[in-house]
Amino acid sequence: MRRLLLFLLPAALVGALLVAVQAPASATPPNIPSAGTARTRLGELTVAAESHASTYDRSLFPHWITVSGTCNTREMVLKRDGTNVSTDSACYPTSGSWYSPYDGATWTAPADVDIDHMVPLAEAWASGAWAWTTAHRQDFANDLGGPQLWAVTDNVNQAKGDKDPAEWQPSRTAFRCTYARAWVQVKWYYDLTVDSAEKSALTSMLNTC
Q1: Which Pfam families match (predicted)?
Q2: Whose CB among 29, 41, 81, 113 lies 3.0–4.6 Å from 188's, allowing a Cys bridge?
Q3: pLDDT values of the chain reduced to their tens digit, one per residue, 209 residues
């Protein structure tokens, strides 16, 4: 798989991540390419119809895994992308706030926040992840090093579901450029395919940048 080792977090880097999340949160995951780079990478993606959708099972993408101590991936994203986040001994947030860039809402209860997979698991499966090992799918579902995991309003995440950008886009039009840049990066990094309608939608979104 293309460039697999660049963003994955080996155990040696976990300590550095724990330090990093103490910095002021930006509510933006790392490694989002520029619009120009995203356009280039979109052009490099293989265009193909989705397949194997009927064999998808969410359990084939193990998450949320323990990252460090008592903290799992969801809790790490809440710490990374929240503001003034405090946690208890089990790593569950006891205070803080979270800005959802998809709809512009801010929440103070972690229960109101979902962690969205930018490229949904079912979408990834039908775009090539059906051929991956379970370990590789686990890496994808828990990727803290790229723009795959976003803290967003729970019902917005549920409305998105497994839809690609031809079927669903954030209600905040000002965010659609960033959304497309992040989506393309994840697809490119994991060497996943795009279908023709998806590519057309992403092209239009990148043209708003």
Answers
A1: GmrSD_C
A2: 41
A3: 444 433 344 333 333 333 333 333 456 899 999 999 999 999 999 999 999 999 999 999 999 999 999 999 999 999 999 999 999 999 999 999 999 999 999 999 999 999 999 999 999 999 999 999 999 999 999 999 999 999 999 999 999 999 999 999 999 999 999 999 999 999 999 999 999 999 999 999 999 99
> What number of other Cβ atoms are within 10 A of residue 40's Cβ?
13
Distances (CA, A) of 59 to 130, 168, 178: 12, 24, 29
What are the residue ranges spanned by the domains of the chain? Answer: 11-206
| Cβ within 8 Å of residue 158, ≥6 positions away | 114
SS3 151: strand
How far apart, in whole angstroms, are the C-alpha atoms of residue 130 and residue 134?
A: 9
- Would you call 106 helix, strand, or coil by DSSP? strand
C-alpha pair distances (Å), 35 with each of 47, 169, 183, 193: 20, 17, 12, 19
Question: Computed from CA positions of residues 32, 37, 40, 41, in that sequence, does the dihedral angle turn out positive or negative?
Answer: negative
Contact 97, 84 (CB under 8 A): yes
Cβ atoms of residues 158 and 198 within 8 Å: no
Distance of CA 54 to the CA centre of its chain: 23
Burial of 6 (0-12, 13-18, 19+ CB in 10 A): exposed
